[in-house]
Amino acid sequence: MHLKLLKMMIRIRSLEERIASEYSSQEMRCPTHLSIGQEAAAAGVGLALSKKDVAVSSHRGHGHYVGKGGNLKRMMAEIYGKATGCSMGRGGSMHLIDREVGFEGTTAIVGNSIPVGVGLGLALQAKKMKNVSVIFLGDGAIEEGAFYESANFAAVRNLPVLFICENNLYSVYSPLNVRQPKNRKIYKMVQGMGIKSIIVDGNNVEDVYKAVLKAKAEILKKKQPIFIEMSTYRWREHCGPNFDNHIGYRDEKEFLRWKKKDPIKIFSNRLLNNHKISEVQLKKIYTSIEKEIDEAFDFAKKSPFPKLALSTSTIFAK
Amino acid sequence: MKKQRIIPFSKAINEALHLSMTKDKNVILYGLGVDDPMEIFGTTKGLAKKFGNDRVFDVPTSENAITGVGIGASIGGLIPVMTHQRLDFFLLAMDQLVNAAAKWYFMFGEQKSIPITIRLIIGRGWGQGPTHSQNLQSWFAHIPGLKVVMPSTPQDAKGLLLASIADKNPVVFLEHRWLHNLKGHVDTKFTPIPLGEASVLRKGRDITLVTMSYSTIEAIHAADYLKENFNIACEIIDLRTVSPIDYKTVFKSIVKTKKVLVLDTGMKNCSISSEIISRITEKFWGRLENKPEQLALPDFPEGTSPALTKEYHVRAEDIIKRVLSMSNIKQKQKISLDRQFSHDVPGDWFSGPF
Question: CA B295 → CA A243, A317, B216, distances in Å?
Answer without folding.
Answer: 58, 35, 12
